[in-house]
């Protein structure tokens, strides 16, 4: 992060790195676009892993937007926001695992070719975002949550491609469901990591002093 400007910056409001802001805007646009692509492709292909990845893109776009909003706030508020983002990541994991169980019961076999084509596009999009975010991966809980989302996305994209290959070779939807379940577990694991770090930062933050009472002097 850049140093405070001459003239004095507030100690509890760190300066905003303009490079990080630009990266977040790029990531927001890319993830919003890929959410639409994977949502339509997932429904068309009948793929749980693609739908799970689409929901992940939507969640990431929201997370990037939240991160942009809290950039100029005090560290304690950024950590509190990371708590909410961690809870969202955990909810995503639960949703994906539940969807996989639902499709397992119905015996859906997705379209492998559609899965593969969209998986390649998603991997390229997340690769670009990950490359831009790499330099900021060791920041506070808020920055870490952004990096973990992108890292998990790339892992999920590779897994979707492997699932597409498995579906194509086996003619079964089980590889798709297995990959979707792994993606759900990754979401739960990342959520725990973000929540633990955010709670630690909140506990270490200095307490905000209460304002001194205003005493009015009575006129004689």
From TrEMBL:
The keyword ATP-binding does not apply. Residues 24-73, 81-201 form the Cation efflux protein transmembrane domain. Signal peptide: none annotated. This is Cation transporter. It is a multi-pass membrane protein. It comes from the Bacteria. It comes from Massilia litorea. Its main location: membrane. Pfam families: Cation_efflux (PF01545). Keywords: Ion transport, Membrane, Transmembrane, Transmembrane helix, Transport, Zinc, Zinc transport. Gene3D superfamilies: Cation efflux protein transmembrane domain (1.20.1510.10). The keyword Transmembrane applies. Coiled coil: none annotated. The chain crosses the membrane at residues 23-45, 57-77, 89-109, 115-134, 154-171, 177-195. GO terms for molecular function: zinc ion transmembrane transporter activity. It is found in: Membrane. GO terms for cellular component: plasma membrane.
